[in-house]
Amino acid sequence: MELRIGNGYDIHRLIFGRKLFIGGIEIPFEKGLLGHSDGDCVCHSITDALLGALALANIGQFFPNEDPETNGMDSKQILKTIHEREILSRSYSIINIDSTIIAQEPKLAPHIEKMRTTLGEILNISSDCLGIKATTNEGLDSIGQGEAIACYSVCLLKKIEIKIPDKNIFTGNENFNAKL
Ligand SMILES: [Zn+2]
After folding, report:
1. Distance 40 CA to ligand 1 centre (A)
2. 58 has which bridge partners?
3. Maximum distance among all Cα pairs of the chain, rounded to whole angstroms
4. Where are the domains of the chain?
5. 24: alpha, beta or left, given left = phi > 0 and alpha = psi -120 to 50?
6. CA-CA distance, 67 to 36, in Å (whole number)?
7. Distance 9 CA to ligand 1 centre (A)
């Protein structure tokens, strides 16, 4: 079985005046993630992990920041598109994904299960295969100061093997040889 591992990292600045979308869901909070899309660093880091596993270009090459078409885009759509167009189309499927969100606030623990279910549906995998954890930065650095949220993701892919059942294929040569 051919296996491929990938990792992805993303960080977005937290600012007032935007809704917070993270892990594919909206979470009530006074600030949201700044980005060309909805800024969902979980979706973006998983997308980059999937692309990285197949040594493809990063998310920015597929969804450029300057593209007006993707302005304010739902990042679940980015993840779904990359999965279908770049991963499934190359006959790879996801074995599992593991993500770690680093956020000082808000508290994400109550929302983790909904994130796993939501992203599992997007990727058509069981939530058992999609680990999401949240931790703080212990008040350190910009993330710890509540200025940004980051996410690390790893994924494991396997090549889908197409099994052709054994059968006797009559080529015509058998009869031809027999006549000789
Ligand atoms: Zn991003």
Report:
1. 6
2. none
3. 86
4. 3-179
5. left
6. 9
7. 9
In CATH, what number does 3-179 get? Answer: 3.30.1330.50
Classify residue 90 by its DSSP letter: G
Give distance in angstroms: CA of 177 to centre of ligand 1. 65
Question: Distance from the CA of 103 to the center of ligand 1, in angstroms?
Answer: 15
Interval between CA 80 and ligand 1 midpoint (Å): 15
Compute how many other C-beta atoms are within 10 angstroms of the C-beta atom of residue 42. 29
CA of 73 to the centre of ligand 1 (A): 11
Q: Per-residue pLDDT for the chain (180 aa), expressed as one digit of tens each?
A: 899 999 999 999 999 999 999 999 999 999 999 999 999 999 999 999 999 999 999 999 999 888 888 888 999 999 999 999 999 999 999 999 999 999 999 999 999 999 999 999 999 999 999 999 999 999 999 999 999 999 999 999 999 988 777 665 555 555 545 444
Is residue 67 classed as helix, strand or coil in its secondary structure?
Answer: coil
